[in-house]
Amino acid sequence: MLFERTLRTAALVTAVATLTSGAALAQKKYDTGASDTEIKIGNIMPYSGPASAYGIIGKTEEAYFKMINDKGGINGRKVNFVTYDDSYSPPKAVEQVRKLVESDEVLAVFNPLGTPSNSAIQKYLNAKKIPQLFVATGATKWNDPKNFPWTIGWQPSYQSEAHIYAKWLMKEKPDAKVAILYQNDDFGKDYLKGTKDGFGPKASSMIMMEESYEVSEPSIDGHIVKIKAANPDVLLIFTTPKFGAQTIKKTAELGWKPLQIITNVSASVGSVMKPAGFEASQGVLSAAYAKDGADPRWNDDAGMKKWAEFLDKYMPGADKTDASIVYGYGAAQTLAKTLEMCGDDLTRANVMKQAASLKDFAPDTLLPGITINTGPSDFAPISQLQMQRFKGEKWEQFGEILSGDVAPE
Amino acid sequence: MSAAEEVVAEGNEAVEAVPKRSMTMGTGTSVVVLLLLIAVPLFAKNFVIFQLTQLLYLGLAVLALNILTGGSGQFSLGQSAFYGIGAYVTAVMMEQFNIPYFLCLPVAGVLCFGVGFLFGQPALRLSGVYLALATFALATAMPQLLKLNFLEPWTGGVQGLVVTKPDAPFGLKMSQDMWLYYFTLFVVLAIYIFSVNLLRSRSGRAFMAIRDNEIAASAMGVNVALYKTLAFGVSAGITGVAGGLSAIAVQFVAPDSFTITLAIQLFLGMVVGGVGWLPGSIVGAAFIIFVPNIAEGVSKGLSGAVFGVILFLVIYLVPHGARQVAILGQQFAGRLRRN
Asked: What is the pLDDT of residues B283-334, one digit of tens each?
C-alpha cells in the first residue's frame, strides 16, 4: 500500500518534471528583430559632422560582432549589427532611428552616441517599448527607470565623476580653495552640479571661483589668467580635450602650479597630455574606469590581450592610443553578455530585464575592481572610478575604487 | 560706375531672371503631383510617411528661400535661424503653455515674419555676398542664443525640449504620422498657393523688378527698401512655419538642430531644385534628405565624398537643377506629340 503510493508519487513527479522541462525547451520567444538564426541590433553614430572622431566606436562595435559571429554567434544566433550615420544632428538621429525600427525592424537600439541625439529618440523608443541600450553619453538623466524604463546608460555619468572629485578633495585637502573652469553647456554644467552636490554644505566655502567658456572660443588663455589672479590652489578642469590641453599648457607657461584635476573625457594621453607637453602635465589628476590601450602595464593583462588580439585580427592598423576603441569594445561586450543572458527569450521586455540584471560583470577593458552592476532601480551600469595621476608619459592609478552613484532628480 | 553700383550689379548677376510664368508648373502636372501626394501615404509604412512629412516641411523651407533668392534676388545663409525660431516658438508654446499645435504655427510664422522684417532693415544696405555674410552671422549666432541661461526655463537650454506628437482629431482612425502628414500637406499647399499668387501680384512684380535691376526698379517707382525687407519678412515667416512643422514631426528641438549646416542644406536644396522655380523646392528637399542616405549606403567612411561627387555631377550636368530637367522633359514630350 505504502509502496504503491510511493510509486504513484514517483510517477507523478516524473510526469510533472517531464512536462516542465518540455515547456522550458519550447520556451523560445521572439520579438521583431530576433529569430532562431539572427539577432538584429540597430545603432546610430556620428560618422560625419562635428563629432565624427567618435565614429570609430561604431566601427569597433561592428568589428566586435563580426568576431562574435565568426565564433558561432550568441547562443547560436548571429548578430546583425546595423549602424547609420546621424551626423550628430538630432533630427537626423530621429530619422535614422525610425528607419532602424520601422524599416530594418531591429530588436533593440544599442549605444547611440551623444546627449542631443539620445534625448531626441528617447521618447519615441520608450513609447514603442524598444530598448535603448547602453547609451554613449555621460549625462545623468539616462538613469531614470521610473519614467524611461526602456533607456539604460553605460559609462559613469559626469555628475558621479565630479562627485568623486569633490569627495576625494574633502578627504585629502579639506581646506582647498577651488576654482572651476567649465564648458558652458550641458557637459560642463553636469560636472559643475556634481561637484557642488559632492561638496554639499561646504560648496560655498570651498569653491572660490566658477569660470565658464564657450566651445566656440578659439583659445581660453584669458580665462586661465583671470583664474590665476584669484589665486586658488585647486583647479578643476571640466573641459573637452582641446581646451584641456590648452589649460594645462597655459598654467605651465604662467609658472603656476595648482593641483589640477581634469575630466576623464579629456584624460587622453594622445590628444591632451602630449599636446600640452608631458613636462607641464606631471602631477595632473583625473579618474578612470577603463584601461589605457597604449599603456604597456596591461601587456600581460588577460583582458587586454584579448582586446589586442581582436584589434590585430578585425581592425588591423587601428590606433591603439584611441580611447574610443577601448570604449566600443567594452560596450559591445556588455551587449553580448546581455544577449547571452537572454537565452532563448529574445523579447524586448526580457532584453531590458537582463540589461538591468547585470551582476559584477567585468568587461575585458575595465580597470581591475571596477564592475558593471544594474538592477530594476539602478540603470547606471558603471558608477565606479579610480583616481589617477599623470607621471612620466602615462597615467598611474592610485587609491581605492570610488563609487559615485548619482540618481537624477 | 561707382563701387556700390558695381556690387549691386555683381549681386544680381548670380540670380538669373526667371520669368514669372515659368516659376510654377502647368495645371495638369500640378493636379497629378497633388493626387500622388495625397494617395501615396495610404499605401506606405509609417516610416515612409514620416520621411514624406520631412520632405514637405523641408520643401517649404526651401520654397521660402526660393521666394527670397529667386523672387527678389537676395541671398540668405541665415534661414536656419528663422527655422530654429519657428521650431522653438512652436515647441515652447505646445509644451510649456499647452496651446494646440495648429495655433502655434501661425504665431511662429508671424513672429518670424517680424524678426525677418527687422533683420531686413539693416541688411538692406548690403547686397550679394555681403548680405550672405550678414545672414551667415545670424545662423552662427542662433544655436548659442538658444542656449542662453535666462531662456532656459522655457527652452530647456542645451538639453532641448521634447514635443508631444498630436493625435488625429475627430476620432479619425489614422496613425499620428499619417495625420501629421496630411496636416503638413494642407499647410504646405496653402502656403504654396499663397506664394504663387504673391509672385504673380503687384508685390511679386516689384520683387522681380528689384532682382533684375534695382536701379531701374526704383526709377519706375518701386519702393526698393520696403519690398526688399518685405521679401525678407515673408521668407522668414514661411521658414518659421516650416520650422514649427519640423518640431512637431521630429518631436524634439535642441539648439544643435539649427546650425549653419541646415542653412547650407536649404541653400543647396534651392540650387538643386532650380533657383526661382517653386515646384523645384520639393525636388531640392528630396535631394538633401535622400542623397546623404544613398551616399551612406555606397560607403560609410566616404559618405561625404560620395555626396560631394553626386552634387558635383548634378551641378555640372544640370546647372539649373530640377527646372532644367523639367524643361527638357517638356520639350521631349512635345517632340513625341509632334511625331
From this structure: 999 999 998 888 888 877 777 888 888 888 888 888 888 888 888 888 888 8
In DSSP terms, which residues pair with A133 in a beta bridge?
A110
Q: Which of B45, B67, B230 is nearest to A103 (CA)?
A: B45
Q: Is residue B266 within 8 Å of B65, Cβ to Cβ? A: yes
Between CA A90 and CA A95 the distance in angstroms is 9
Grid cell listed for A61: 562595435
Q: Which of B50, B250, B292 sits opposite A120 (nearest CB)?
A: B250
Give the mutation candidate from A32, A88, A119, A214 for the B interface (greatest B CB count, under 10 A): A119
In whole angstroms, give the CA distance from residue A302 to residue A138. 28
Burial of A295 (C-beta count, 10 Å sphere; 0-12/13-18/19+): middle
What lies within 8 Å, CB to CB, of B156 at 6+ separation is none
Give the three cell numbers for residue B262: 541646415
- Closest by alpha carbon to B158, among A66, A204, A184, A169? A184
Q: What DSSP line would sit under B73-109, residue for residue?
A: ----S-HHHHHHHHHHHHHHHHHHS---HHHHHHHHH
CB A100 within 8 A of CB A42: yes
Angle between helices A302-314 and A323-342 (to 10 degrees): 100
B206–chain A nearest CA distance, Å: 37
Task: Convert the pLDDT of each residue in A297-333 to its tens digit.
Answer: 888 999 999 999 999 999 998 888 888 899 999 999 9
Residues of A in contact with B50 (CB under 8 A): 95, 98
Judged by DSSP in three states, A337 sits in helix
CB atoms within 10 A of CB A162: 29
A134 near A66, Cβ under 8 Å? no
What are the start-end ranges of the E strands in A239-349?
259-262, 285-288, 345-346
A47 interfaces chain B, CB cutoff of 8 Å: yes
